[in-house]
Design brief:
Layout lengths: L2 H7 L15 E4 L9 E3 L7 E6 L7 H11 L1 H6 L2 E7 L3 H9 L14 E3 L4 H5 L12 E6 L5 E7 L7 H13 L17
Parallel strand pairs: 3-4, 4-5
Antiparallel strand pairs: 1-2, 1-5, 3-6, 6-7
Length: 192
């Protein structure tokens, strides 16, 4: 059975909110020296996870997002949430990107692992692979401690994501109730 036949046989061929998140196991920058350490969905069982994709390393909008998530990493950790960033670039490209200065288009040290979806299978499973360019769209996914996909947003490659909004949504998901429009942590929930 080909991958296309397998996908067609399932009712939801891509990631869908409310269902188990598609599994993944990707090489990452967890060990910058060997670049042989993987990150997988299983690694984050029991924790919240923000998994986000960007199109390509050494581009213009992508560094702003990756650095912004890194700068806010402790806020996510305080909410029992980990972050994994991924693109279709190799781990070697990721390492070169972190070692380059901002003047060279680099991003410097990042507080969370950057994963390589070099085969593009994970971007495809999450429904964000652009078949024309071979890049991932800007997809962001929040996965709960049981591995259920609870939130997803996909934007055009020209528009960077908001770390503040991601934190707000995470806190809303963790609040355990109904959050009205423009809800902020500490505000009342709607009684259902």
């Amino acid at each position: 059975m080909t991958q296309q036949q397998s996908i067609a046989a399932t009712p939801y061929p891509f990631a869908k909110v409310g269902l188990p998140a598609p599994d993944f196991k990707l090489l990452s920058t967890k060990n910058m020296e060997s670049l042989e350490e993987y990150v997988s969905l299983e690694d984050y069982k029991g924790k919240w996870l923000v998994l986000f994709f960007w199109p390509f390393d050494f581009t213009f909008v992508c560094p702003t997002e990756i650095i912004a998530f890194s700068d806010s990493y402790e806020q996510f950790k305080d909410l029992d949430c980990e972050i994994v960033g991924a693109s279709v670039d190799s781990v070697y490209t990721h390492r070169a990107w972190t070692q380059a200065t901002p003047e060279q288009g680099g991003i410097g040290n990042i507080e969370y692992p950057l994963a390589s979806d070099f085969t593009k299978e994970v971007a495809h499973a999450y429904g964000i692979l652009d078949d024309t360019t071979g890049a991932a769209h800007r997809g962001l996914f929040i996965i709960d401690p049981e591995g259920i996909l609870r939130y997803q947003v996909v934007t055009d490659i020209n528009v960077g994501r908001s770390v503040d909004e991601t934190l707000r949504v995470l806190q809303g998901l963790q609040a355990g109730g109904l959050c009205p429009a423009n809800w902020k942590p500490g505000q009342k929930l709607i009684n259902g």
